[in-house]
Amino acid sequence: MLLPLLAFAFGSLVVAFAAMMLMGGRAVTIDRRLAEVVGARDKPADDVSRFDALAGALKKLGDKVPRSPRELGTLRQRLIQAGYRRDEALPIFFGIRMVAALGIFALFAGSVLMRPNLAMAFAGLGLGYILPGMALARLAKRRQHRIRLALADALDLLVVSVEAGLGLDQALARVGSELAYAYPDLSDELRLINVELRAGKSRAEAMRNLADRTGVDDLSALVTMLIQTDKFGTSVAQALRVYSETLRTKRRQRAEEAAAKTGVKMVFPLVFCIFPPIWVVSIGPAAIKFVQVLFPLIENTR
Fold first, then answer.
1. Rounded to an integer, what is the distance from CA 260 to the centroid of its chain?
2. Domains (ranges, CATH) in the chain?
3. What is the chain's pLDDT, residue by residue, as a tens digit (302 residues)?
4. Phi/psi at 44 (nearest 5 deg)?
5. Which residues contact 206 (CB under 8 A, 6 or more apart)?
6. Which of helix, strand or coil describes residue 64?
7. Other C-beta atoms lying within 10 Å of the C-beta of residue 283
8. CB-based contacts of 266, cutoff 8 Å, min separation 6
């Protein structure tokens, strides 16, 4: 009689423990989601101080790096397109580039991984100099892609706001505040337009700055259309509605183009990764049997 009672008590304890763990995890998940909605994403003070110290060290190193005047404008534009608008972003980038280049050079020049090789060390030096630029270009392209995906929903909200009676400036500010959680990149850019307008810049200049900051072709076309609409006095709501339909057509065409490219892109994984194992599995046993039978016959004939 004791064995069933013990089994029942043990099972009850296991179920109760699992229920408590699940309830705790659910509460943590709810708190995390509430914090995301509210916007409470503050980092601990220790992490902030360490990040500031690292950024300061990289900035000091980047200030001492010799710079080419020809690439300063391109790098600054690329940093702005990636979302880094602060003045110290450029020296920090130069510091990261110097640390990466010298780190890879020391890794191959020393005896940590392999025997010291001067040729490999100089090749690693060049690679470390190029990699931060490639990573920055990748970050900029990802941000441009996020802004491009958010533009259709932003246009729908902008059309609704303008047709509801808001002016274009107020509609841009409203759309920027509404998209803060779903599309933070585009929301920051629209809020920056409002800041520039309050600072005294003209609407055309603020919108051109938006197109230059993002580098998105669809957004540049939208800016050109809004400037022309403002200049000629036509209906902003009708122009936005027509451009929204055009943008969705372009998105569908891009999706069809990407789907058409899938077959070509799958050729290389199929040839280099899938076909060799299939050949080994299908032809391997027959080849082994062929070698086992043919070689003894050749030796017997000799």
1. 24
2. 54-140 (no CATH), 144-258 (1.20.81)
3. 444 455 555 556 555 655 555 554 444 455 555 555 555 445 555 555 776 777 777 777 777 777 777 778 788 888 888 888 888 888 888 888 888 888 888 877 776 666 777 788 788 888 888 888 888 889 999 999 898 888 888 888 888 888 888 888 888 888 888 888 888 888 888 888 888 888 888 888 888 888 888 888 888 888 888 888 888 888 888 888 888 888 888 888 888 888 888 888 888 888 888 888 888 888 888 878 877 877 777 777 76
4. -60, 155
5. 193, 196, 197
6. coil
7. 11
8. none
Helix (H) or strand (E) holding 165: none
Q: Which structure tokens are listed for 292?
A: 């086992």
Alpha helix segments (H runs only) across 110-235: 118-163, 168-178, 184-199, 203-214, 217-232
Amino acid residing at 159: V
Q: How far apart are CA 149 and CA 84, in angstroms?
A: 20
Question: Where does residue 227 rank: exposed (0-12), middle (13-18), buried (19+ CB within 10 A)?
Answer: middle
Angle at 237 between CA 142 and CA 162, to 5 degrees: 85
**Token representation of residue 220:** 């540049």
